[in-house]
Design a protein that fits this description.
The structure holds two protein chains of two kinds. Chain A is α+β, with helices and mostly antiparallel strands. Chain A contains 18 helices and 30 strands. Chain B is an alpha+beta fold. Chain B is built from eight helices and five strands; from the N terminus they run αααββαβββαααα. Classes of the chains: A alpha+beta, B alpha+beta.
Chain lengths: 788, 218
């Protein structure tokens, strides 16, 4: 998650404006807000706008479809070298020596760099607990050790094989439950903490640590003992989720061109700013000597922030070889360097006869390998009203790659346990699960979403659990998600108008495939009344005004107000510059439908080009930075997802047949792109629930399936029918009211919704994902449980 | 690496060893391999290990390039010829991101040695469009937003365009089958299906109009 800036600090108010507020299905209302002097006038609802809220083709769609977009992996600079990362072949131990001489002698090799410090992992609170060494301690199989650069990728790969590393091995543990044992090998000799990235992740610091168990992080509200005593019914459950790897199609990677006057970094990153910040920290460089470029980016999902070990190694190699260096991780390394932590959760929920919640208690243990951040309490703490909540989250260190932020950190795990427990509660109270949520959920958007589910799906024909008599049993289930409005104030845009009438926007913000470019084009287009495709969008370059790092669904809500404000301000500057020539004053001019007209005489109007031709200079430009939220109201986003499935109780296969999702994300800017993201969240959620699982070899300590044939992600044949409805939710918080959808897009809910549908089909509760045939048959009591 | 003895591992050797596996996924490549292996058995001519000059026919142009025999077609396209539209994701034939056409048949460029496709017609994603004019399938991908990060898109387009060439009337199941090897992490599949079926529909309409005009003229 991005730094929760001082977005809550209100801007110096200058005027009161009336904003559209609420959800169209409930009848739109208005809300007064104090806004700053430079703020543009409030936008009406999407139904009254030309481009905002209308489906817009992806700005860089043609370039992507034609293979013309240059991703970091595609960068090819003159004289560029290719690098390979060399990583540890033991899960735990000390490096005795590293011999790079043979590698260096190989013709074509230009530089070798041995890592002195490993980034992105937990570090000992007291480094003196370990004997000093020139090499970092190896704590996981695949930990980066060194890099080698050569004139071709093949030679770099050959050279990597020639680097000889001698180890002193230490005892290791790769299984979460084994690691909790008192006599388990210690991953760290003492307490250790990990920092989160710009995308979130990272666990609490300074909490107690016993052996490998780090925590708890405790959140307490009211008195759960009292709450359970007051309850008419209590439901309890124990749930297990697996480690999931990000598996972005473009692996982590950098091209670094180290020159004395400027270091140019092409990065496959979710945050050009985060990369520049870390390069500045690591290499003690002023930021004005670092340029980061991310024009096209092949997916991140939370894993790609900062310099990373690969960025630091590429930079060192480039500096040593005096040439640009490309270092992309290979697929095996991609699977190892980051993941979504697993979990073992115990949940207890108490309620009154009418469903009113009286107490929620959650204890979770999860492993983020050699990192922290396995907490799962988000949904339990934030979804429903309940006076007494106690959550305790523990991280368990094991000798495996570090966890990282991954699309809604902690929430898919938490929701899998929590929303199934709520479903159990509904069953126990004999209340329909949708109806129960009417009692316990105060969120107005989810209320509308539940109504949509009720009206547009098969829900009313839902049968009691386990009704089907044949071997294939069908069922339906729902689950809800919650995510939070984070705003990153490091969000600026410049908008330029040229004498030829062309308009362009510049910002360092990046587009991960989420549609940032398109969204910005739509905002500028609306302000100028010109088609989005005609706006020039130049982003993903730190030479432009600073952009937010894209994590925690912050981008849309953070950068679009800056884009609109810059567009609005440059328009005012344009009016002021040309008004005298048009024989009027700036405040008498209005730009609508691509034409500049007189407010007092609509018969007088000009095309944008006619007006810009009168500019006194060739270019007029304005830059705007995100201003504080208009109010301090706490805002959450969410969605409700409905699943229909069939369980083959003989083969143990689960077939998802239909998903219907209703989701909200403030004011949708480009529904075409938003729906693409929700489709993606739903499909990633199905993939997480049914297929994906990192499998560690307990005896050798490495990941057995670090590839794309044995680490199974959902493919075309597993895609069900999907229908998505977007609920507009006007919140009157910024000049655009936009909000991100990345987290609440379905990834949070799907495993829980599938679990609930599975229960409805079979009468059996799935307490463990992935729901592979082995796990399903074991839950159905047909085979013995198998340990992955 | 580490203390393990140095093992020489070449993709060429791997492909030969794994010929049967490769054949199940890349029939074209395996056939080429079989021919090449047979040729090698009956001649003393050895290639490599250094660079060898080869001529490749790509997108209607002839390219002369000096490559080591172990270079895959994907590496050659991307690193030697600057044709980076073909993406490498898994580099071992399990994701189809590197799909190109060899003599009009989809094949995996990461599992094909460049020297094995000398004399064959290679089509890459760059060869599908003409200048800025997109192939119908590419245009439909844009219209339906059948992409997010776009890294799987070239491979998807190559698979879908090839499907429509061999089956002008595909059903949803046919499209799913055609891209069943193409992995997409962003989850754009529903729109890939819609885009491909849309092109089939457009072509049927065009064919219908042509038939109508021809009939009237006759």
């Amino acid at each position: 998650m991005a730094p929760q800036s001082d977005a809550t600090k209100p801007a110096a108010p200058n005027r009161t404006e009336t904003f559209v507020w609420g959800i169209p299905q409930n009848g739109l209302q208005s809300k007064e807000r104090q806004v700053g002097r430079d703020e543009p006038p409030p936008l009406p609802a999407n139904s009254e706008l030309t481009y905002i809220g209308k489906p817009t083709e992806r700005y860089d769609g043609p370039a992507k479809a034609m293979g013309k977009g240059k991703y970091t992996a595609d960068i090819n600079l003159p004289g560029m070298l290719y690098a390979r990362m060399i990583d540890a072949t033991i899960p735990h131990g000390r490096i005795v020596s590293i011999d790079t001489s043979e590698a260096e002698k190989l013709p074509g090799v230009r530089a070798v760099h041995v890592i002195e410090h490993v980034y992105g992992v937990a570090e000992l609170r007291d480094p003196k607990m370990e004997a000093p060494s020139r090499y970092p301690v190896i704590r996981y199989y695949g930990q980066p050790i060194a890099g080698v650069a050569a004139i071709s990728q093949q030679i770099a790969n050959d050279a990597a094989q020639l680097v000889k590393v001698k180890y002193d091995t230490l005892a290791f543990v790769v299984d979460r439950s084994d690691a909790r044992a008192e006599d388990a090998p210690m991953v760290f000799p003492g307490p250790a903490d990990a920092a989160g990235s710009a995308g979130g992740g990272g666990g609490p610091k300074g909490v107690p640590q016993t052996g490998n168990v780090h925590g708890p992080q405790q959140k307490k509200n009211g008195d759960v003992e009292k709450g359970f005593a007051e309850a008419d019914v209590i439901v309890e459950g124990e749930y297990f989720t697996q480690v999931q790897t990000h598996s972005a199609l473009e692996t982590h990677g950098f091209v670094v061109d180290w020159k004395p006057d400027e270091v140019t970094v092409y990065a496959s990153t979710q945050g050009t700013s985060s990369v520049r910040n870390e390069f500045a920290d690591v290499f003690k460089l002023p930021k004005n000597k670092i340029r980061v470029i991310t024009e096209y980016m092949g997916g991140g999902f939370g894993a790609k922030f900062g310099a990373g070990n690969e960025g630091v190694v590429a930079a060192n190699l480039s500096r040593k070889a005096n040439a640009p260096v490309k270092l992309m991780l290979d697929r095996r390394q991609e699977h190892i360097v980051c993941n979504r932590p697993d979990s073992h959760q115990k949940l207890k929920v108490g309620a009154k006869r009418d469903g009113t919640l009286t107490a929620i208690a959650l204890t979770s243990y999860g492993t983020a390998g050699v990192g922290t951040g396995a907490g799962t309490a988000g949904p339990a703490n934030n979804m429903y009203k309940c006076p007494n909540i106690l959550t305790e989250e523990y991280d368990v260190f094991v000798n495996a790659g570090p966890g990282a932020a991954f699309r809604a950190p902690g929430h898919p795990q938490g929701c899998f346990a929590f929303e199934q427990t709520i479903d159990d509660l509904a069953a126990k109270l004999n209340i329909d699960p949708l109806t129960l949520r009417e009692t316990i959920d105060e969120n107005p958007a989810r209320k509308v979403e539940r109504q949509i589910i009720l009206e547009r799906t098969n829900w009313r024909n839902r049968k009691p659990a386990g009704s089907d008599s044949g071997p294939v049993k069908r069922g339906m289930g729902i689950a809800q998600s919650v995510w939070y409005r984070f705003v990153n104030m490091n969000s600026s845009c410049e908008v330029r108008v040229s004498r030829d009438g062309s308009v362009e926007l510049l910002s360092a913000v990046q587009d991960l495939g989420t549609g940032t470019k398109t969204m910005l084009a739509v905002i500028v287009a609306e302000e100028f009344g010109i088609p989005p495709a005609s706006v020039g969008i130049r982003i993903g370059d730190t030479r432009f005004p600073i952009g937010p790092d894209s994590g925690g669904s912050v981008t849309a809500g953070s950068i679009t107000p800056a884009a609109r404000n810059a567009s609005y301000q440059v328009k005012q500057k344009l009016f002021a510059a040309v008004a005298p020539q048009l024989g009027t004053t700036a405040d008498n001019l209005v730009l609508k439908g691509g034409r500049v007209a007189f407010k007092n005489d609509p018969s007088k109007s000009y095309t944008l080009k006619q007006v810009t031709a009168k500019m006194p200079t060739d270019e007029i430009s304005a830059q705007a930075t995100r201003v504080a939220e208009y109010s301090k109201e706490r805002i959450t986003y969410g969605g409700v997802d409905y699943v229909e499935l069939a369980v083959d109780t003989e083969t143990g296969r689960v077939h998802i047949e239909k998903v219907f999702g209703a989701h909200d994300c403030g004011r949708p800017i480009n529904p075409l792109g938003v729906i693409s993201q929700i489709n993606g969240g739903i499909l990633q959620g199905i993939s997480y629930a049914l297929f994906e699982q990192r499998i560690m070899d307990r005896n050798a300590g490495y990941m057995l399936n670090a590839n794309l044939e044995n680490y199974k992600i959902l493919g075309a044949r597993e895609v069900p029918e999907i229908e998505v409805v977007l609920v507009e939710n006007y919140i009157a918080q910024s000049s655009t009211d936009a909000a991100g959808i990345g987290e609440s897009a379905g990834i949070i809910t799907l495993a829980a919704a599938i679990g609930n549908a599975f229960y409805n089909a079979t009468g059996v509760r799935m307490r463990k994902i992935p729901m592979t045939p082995a796990n399903v048959l074991s839950a159905l009591g047909k085979v013995q449980e198998v340990q992955a | 690496m580490a203390d393990s003895p140095k093992t020489t591992f070449s993709r060429r050797g791997f492909l030969k060893g794994a010929g049967v596996t490769a054949a199940t996924t890349v029939i074209e490549s395996a056939n080429a391999l079989a021919r090449e292996t047979k040729d090698a058995l009956h001649s003393d001519r050895a290639v490599g290990p250094g660079s060898v000059p080869v001529k490749l026919h790509i997108n209607g142009h002839e390219y002369s390039v000096a490559i080591e025999p172990r270079y895959t077609l994907a590496e050659t396209l991307r690193d030697n010829l600057g044709l980076t539209g073909t993406k490498v994701v898994c580099d071992r034939g399990s994701c189809s991101a590197c799909t190109v056409w060899i003599d009009k048949t989809p094949a995996l460029a990461c599992m094909t040695l460049a020297i094995d496709v000398v004399g064959r017609q290679i089509t890459t994603i760059e060869g599908l469009s003409h200048g800025d004019t997109m192939h119908q399938v590419q245009a439909a991908f844009v219209k339906h937003d059948a992409m997010q990060c776009g890294f799987c898109t070239p491979g998807m387009v190559m698979s879908c365009a090839a499907l429509l060439d061999r089956n002008p009337n595909p059903k949803l199941a046919d499209v799913k089958h055609a891209v069943s090897g193409n992995l997409c992490r962003c989850g754009t599949y529903p729109k890939v299906f819609a885009a491909t079926l849309d092109v089939a529909q457009q072509r049927r309409q065009t064919a219908g109009l042509v038939a109508l005009v021809t009939e009237r003229e006759a």
